[in-house]
């Protein structure tokens, strides 16, 4: 989206390893030359499984509150874990509501895109991950 000019007013870079995205020291020691390195405000994951791993690590090891919102649909969808505390569920609802009010919408995907990316739940996590990644 950044390459297509759809994101304005933000520095976008990546992919960056987690340490390079959040630690200026790590990025400097590894010679990463990026205006985003060490100062990332948003971390985007390539798929649901990767996002879940990062979110659970931040939640359980750093005391973060996760606000789960699924992007790429016509409207934001709040996604919570069965183990999420009420505070995390409320945060997800708040983020989804703010996105909706801000008019963040995406065009309806075409049939081939829908068939290759959306699956019906419930299903094992392995079914959410593209075969070439798993």
List keywords for this structure.
134 residues, mainly alpha, 3% strand
Task: Give structural notes.
This protein is mainly alpha-helical. It folds into two domains: 1-42, no CATH class; 45-127, no CATH class. Helices cover 37% and strands 3% of the residues. It contains five helices and two strands; from the N terminus they run H-H-H-E-E-H-H. It has a two-stranded antiparallel ribbon. A hairpin with a 6-residue loop joins strand 1 (69-70) and strand 2 (77-78). It is globular. The two termini are 25 Å apart. Residues 113-123 have low confidence and may be disordered.
Quick structural gist:
The chain is an all-alpha fold. It has five helices and two strands.
Summarize the topology.
Blueprint: H1 18-22, H2 24-29, H3 48-62, E1 69-70, E2 77-78, H4 86-101, H5 111-117
Antiparallel strand pairs: 1-2
Which radius of gyration do the C-alpha atoms yield? 17 Å
Helix percentage range: 25-40%
Number of helices: 5
**Proportion of beta-strand residues:** under 5%
Count of all domains: 2
Task: Look at the helices and sheets and give the structural class.
Answer: mainly alpha
Write down the overall geometry: globular
Major sheet: arrangement of strands:
1-2
